[in-house]
Amino acid sequence: MRVTVSGGVHGNELLGIYLVKLLQREEPHFENIALEFLLANPKAIAQCRRYIDRDLNRSFSKEALESDAAIYEYERAKVLAKRLEQCDFLIDLHTTTANMGITVVLSSDDALSANIAKILALEYENVRILRWLSNDEGAFINSVVPHSITIEVGPVCQGVLDANLFFATKKVLLRALDILNKEERCDEKVECYDIVDARDFPRIDGEIAGMIHPELLGRDYELLHPGDPIFIEFDGKEHFFEEESCYPVFINEAAYYEKGAAFYLTKKSTL
Ligand SMILES: [Zn+2]
Questions:
Q1: How remote is the CA of residue 226 from the centroid of ligand 1, in Å?
Q2: How many Å lie between the centroid of ligand 1 and the Cα of residue 162?
Q3: Using one digit for the tens of pLDDT, what is the confidence trace for 193-251?
Q4: Which one of 73, 155, 182, 254 has the largest count of C-beta atoms within 10 Å of its C-beta?
Q5: What is the SS3 assignment for 133?
Q6: What is the largest CA-CA distance in the chain?
Q7: In angstroms, rounded to a whole number, what is the distance separating the alpha carbons of residues 150 and 177?
Q8: Tens of pLDDT, residues 52-63
Q9: 190 close to 270: Cβ distance less than 8 angstroms
Q10: What residues are neighbours of ligand 1 (ion), with CB under 5 Å?
Q11: In order of start, what are the domains of the chain with their CATH numbers?
């Protein structure tokens, strides 16, 4: 099986970049895996920016891959799509500024990908599974490979490393490769979270008019009830949650301010 581990799809998410560089030096060996490493967005990595022109992880739609626009990430996506043609399984490393621990994101309904996520979630207390099946902004890098998991780790600021998260992620990543190498199977039902919607900040004429409420901040994967405070405006006016209970994730994710998402709503399910 040909497996690629990618970091630096977002150039300011340092954990994945330095983990890929470390493993390129350490060259871990798995007898049944041809392992490759990828630093996905070199220009953005060099400048420690999320991207140069567009979000690379929204640049793999059919339209983007066929576009001849002078957009660095569109050009890069074509190169990566070609390079990943032979790849069976992609493990894509990201960080989040939200308090999400180690989240294994599944972006397609694929049994092999789900199998790995389930084993990791059963073995590690800080690993959760998040299914993000509808992505209407334009496709993730995962869309050009048959099987994949995305590992989102946080909380950590953009452009910053966190040693505890780094070593915890390395352990989970090596175990994921070990599972693929041994073709381990999991037949148990495992808890997961399905993204169902997003909620934007309060805005006036497009400009942000409030912040995540202090009582919500850092409470990713904790049940949010109707009546709980979610936003607070700059003059102190509070906004309360008015929908049925759900589990919020990506709360106050820095990269999503521009996407119009203050947090995402999920429902708990089993996989
Ligand atoms: Zn990212």
A1: 30
A2: 15
A3: 999 999 999 999 999 999 999 999 999 999 999 999 999 999 999 999 999 999 999 99
A4: 73
A5: coil
A6: 60
A7: 13
A8: 999 999 999 999
A9: yes
A10: 10, 13, 94
A11: 2-188 (3.40.630.10), 197-266 (2.20.25.160)
